[in-house]
Amino acid sequence: MPSVLYRKYRAQNFDQLIGQNHITKLLKNAIKTNQIAQAYLFVGSRGTGKTSTARILAKAVNCLKPTNDGNPCNECSICNAISNGSMMDLIEIDAASNRGIDQIRELKEKIEFSPSEGKYKVYIIDEVHMLTTEAFNALLKTLEEPPAHVIFMLATTDVHKLPPTILSRCQRYDFRLGTDSEIAEVISSVSKEEGIGVVEKALALLVQNAKGSYRDALSLLDVVYSGQEKGKKQITEEEVRNILGLPDFDKVTTLLSSLEEGNGKKALEIVEGLEEKGVNLQQFTSYTLSILREILVGKIKGKLGKDYEMFSGWDIRMIHRVINLFLEAENRIKYASNQALVLEMIIPEMMKDEPVPDTEVKIVNTDVKNKIAPQVEIKKEEIKEEVKEEPIPSEVAEDSEEEEDDISNDDISADDVKKRWESFVLEVKPFNNNLYAFLGSANVVGFNEGVLTVEVPFSFHKDRIEIPKSREAISTVFKKMFGSSCKIVCNVNDQMRLEKKSDAEFVLRNVPVTTKKEAHKEEKSEKPNFFKAKKVSAEIEAIFEGM
């Protein structure tokens, strides 16, 4: 087996190109009718066959015995020379490493010479978008009026970086990525030729990681097979995962199940375990999104695969929410210094608050010296009958008292909240930076029966604090600090504005203004004075107030 499969199995004629029939059909017709353009532009993702197509086209225009359907014969001296790379009239240039104006000037000097072997001298410029602006300008005139014996074939993955003047002088062909079935066909056919067995799940993994690139598919197959023990002719799913360093499917499904259940502790343990094992978290996130896509498509079609049956109870909106969270994480994780933190920040978004009980429970403390157990008084509107209270054994009473500490609001006073307010506001910051700023300008008025009342100086603050997302964050942090959930009521107190005057109007008052004499001139002038102090709206004041 050769070291590089994609070179051994590179397409040698138009018919061998897979998935680009919309391009090969046009090129073959151009060859048959002798309608050859002076400049071609091949656009598409990596590994889709741009360079291979350019080589085949170079063969076809120079072939000594072209076939009737427009393909090169692959038998004449010209075709063989191009196949083995010895053709003098085929010049391949890598624009990534030859991107300057000097290289293009050298090219312009040489194109005047006639071809030595074939009918046309062909220049293939790969990654042409890497050329400098000066190099593009130097190439422009040549593309506009090239010699009759020269054909340019430009290939790029980033067509938007090319100047419009270059685009307008080329025939453009867009290459598409391969479908899963086409990539699987390429891997299967090459495996069969090489005598390699690939199990179904291993093939699916290779297809998934090729991401539509025919070349990448063969490169991955090459890597996996060369990493096997000598004499082994079967590629398994486990080998593909180990050699390519792919995440474990079970880890992903367990993490998703934990998030759906709101089990933050279990989800955090999984992320920490991934970090300890040195798993590539960026790859893990990408793999998680591919699994979420399978779940989403399966739910929409109404048919989940066997591997995804555990997600049959998921609501479609839940899937949509989780996908958005991981998409955001995928964008952030590329540039994050702490990648684990990016994934961990998904967990609070999925955690569920404990439900507030329907019953109001009060603990009536009696004489501790006599060790009389506290009496539990239950009030509920639905219960009409009076129930006689019976003494509670001391062991049970102690347990009840501990449970009550977790859910009762009676032991929390407004003073307790005020004393810890600054700490509370700091705990809110990781959840929402803006909410942290607004709560920082709020004053605690009272706390009664689970309702936290605060005052803010502006209605803008009140509106932002009372949105559902803010309420949820406040209740979560309050539960963490005081052991009980709370509801928030926000009132606007205009008098608070006098106490905090670091606002926009105060800032603009310190900007230098014109003198009376200059102001008189300014009135006559058509040009406005932008440094003159102006009145600021309450909305802008509110924004400054929250900074």
Key structural traits:
547 residues, alpha/beta, Rossmann fold, Helicase, Ruva Protein, domain 3, Zinc Finger, Delta Prime, domain 3, 6 domains, five-stranded parallel β-sheet, three-stranded mixed β-sheet, 27 helices, 11% strand
CATH topology of the largest domain: Rossmann fold
Number of helical segments?
A: 27
Low-confidence stretches: 359-407, 499-516, 522-536
Largest sheet: 5 strands, parallel
Instruction: Let me know the number of strands.
Output: 12
Brief synopsis:
With 547 residues, this protein is of the alpha/beta class. It has helices at residues 5-8, 21-32, 50-62, 77-84, 101-110, 133-144, 164-167, 180-194, 200-210, 214-226, 237-244, 249-261, 264-276, 281-301, 316-333, 339-344, 346-350, 394-407, 414-419, 421-428, 433-440, 459-465, 468-482, 496-499, 504-509, 516-524, 538-545; strands spanning 39-43, 90-94, 121-126, 150-156, 171-174, 197-198, 234-235, 360-364, 375-379, 443-448, 451-456, 487-492. The protein has six domains: 5-174, P-loop containing nucleotide triphosphate hydrolases (Rossmann fold, 3-Layer(aba) Sandwich); 180-244, Helicase, Ruva Protein, domain 3 (Orthogonal Bundle), CATH 1.10.8.60; 249-350, Up-down Bundle (Zinc Finger, Delta Prime, domain 3); 360-405, no CATH class; 414-499, 2-Layer Sandwich (GMP Synthetase, Chain A, domain 3); 504-545, no CATH class.
